[in-house]
Amino acid sequence: MEQQDGRYLRGFLAGALVGGMAGAITALLLAPKSGRELRRDIAERTSELYDKAYETLNPKAIGEEVPPVTINSGKMRAQQIVQAAREQAEELLSSAEKILRDARTKAEHAKEQIQENIERVREAAKASVDAFKSELSSGE
């Protein structure tokens, strides 16, 4: 029964770790920071979570005897999860930066079009005023 409880505890802690990493990455991605700062924060936070997970899931810390193979496979799996999270975060950042560049380009293009339209309206208004003045002077 105690072995089963230990497995449940490890399973719960692993789930909490993955959920915590997902939440931390989401929070970092939604924070208003530059790409470089965000990548650095994600790397630091991931490393911290890995260390906490290792301390929490370390069999010596919870008083269980687990074969070294299990510890190593767990450690390797945790490293794979961390690496996958880093890669996904980098992909998200890359996509976000591309979307931001595209939005800036579109905004600049729209600004130029608006300025051109304003200039056309000014010219049309001036031409209308000139035509009106011409009509007034010819009617006198």
Strands, count? 0
β-sheet strand percentage:
under 5%
How many structural domains does the protein architecture include?
Answer: 1
Mean pLDDT equals 75
Largest sheet: none
Helix count, DSSP H or I runs of 4 or more residues: 4
- Write down the Rg: 31 Å
Distance between the termini: 110 Å
pLDDT < 50 stretches: none
Q: What is the 3D form?
A: rod-shaped
Indicate the structural class.
Answer: mainly alpha
Listing every helix as H and every strand as E from the N terminus to the C terminus, the arrangement reads HHHH
Helix content: over 70%
Short description:
By secondary structure, this protein is mainly alpha-helical. The chain contains four helices and no strands.
Entry keywords:
0% strand; 140 residues; mainly alpha
Describe the structure.
It is a single chain. The protein has 140 residues and is mainly alpha-helical. It has one domain. Helices cover 91% and strands 0% of the residues. The chain has four helices and no strands. It has helices at 2-30, 35-57, 59-62, 68-139. α1 packs parallel to α4 (68-139) and α2 packs antiparallel against α4 (68-139). The longest helix is centred in the C-terminal third of the chain and has 72 residues, at 68-139. The radius of gyration is 31 Å and the shape is rod-shaped.
